[in-house]
Specification:
The protein is α/β, with parallel strands linked by helices. The chain contains eight helices and seven strands, in the order H-H-H-E-H-E-H-E-E-H-E-H-H-E-E.
């Protein structure tokens, strides 16, 4: 299973965010622009690089070593996969995936579970690398070259994400993007954009009918 590789890299995983802080802050700004609030769950929480600064209460991940780091940041952690969330129906105001949906074994099942555990009127937010973007092409090259992590990635397009959300019965209401250029060239964070053309990182918000 692809998640096992994350046990191998957990200890130094956050170093990327420190070294590429402008890209990291750009991604955080994009998520914040969607205006989610209330009790949140992050699926594929990893080291809580996003959950902690976003104030998300609960995170799930199959990697026990990643969860150990997340727990140290004050996140309530549960070892689980996105396809089988161990929560009762309508437990959360929102569910967030950040660069996680492209690693799950079953996209539809994971979105279906997110739909199940989010409250009526709540939302599911999917943020990921856009398959057709400059960043998607870069990650595809890494995957083809046998990168330790990215050889397991299944890149999604903006349309793939939207279709999966709508298939689960969610209504897409907004999408924003960021990372118009390589993060190595960023000297400061980018503001999120509603025009997603050329964005390497996209976030799609979808609402569950009340």
């Amino acid at each position: 299973m692809s998640w096992r590789v994350f046990d191998e890299v957990a200890e130094g995983y956050d170093s990327w965010y420190r070294e590429n802080w402008a890209a990291y802050e750009s991604e955080l700004k994009a998520i914040k622009a969607l205006g989610v609030s209330g009790r949140g769950l992050e699926v594929g929480v990893g080291t809580a690089a996003f959950a902690a600064p976003l104030g998300i209460a609960v995170g799930v991940d199959p990697s026990s070593k990643m969860l150990r780091v997340a727990k140290q940041k004050g996140i309530e952690v549960v070892r689980a996969v996105g396809e089988a969330l161990p929560f009762v129906h309508e437990s959360f105001d929102y569910v967030l995936f950040v660069a996680a949906l492209s690693f799950v074994e079953d996209v539809d099942a994971s979105i279906g579970e997110a739909h199940r555990v989010v409250k009526s009127g709540g939302c599911v937010v999917v943020c990921d690398i856009e398959k057709r973007s400059w960043l998607g092409r870069e990650y595809a090259r890494k995957a083809a070259n046998g990168h330790l992590i990215y050889r397991f990635i299944n890149l999604l397009s903006l349309n793939d994400i939207s279709v999966a959300l709508e298939k689960a019965g969610l209504r897409v209401c907004r999408a924003v993007g960021t990372l118009m250029k390589p993060w190595r060239e960023l000297s400061s964070p980018e503001d999120p954009r509603d025009d997603l053309e050329g964005c390497g990182f996209v976030c799609v918000k979808a609402v569950k009918a009340g």
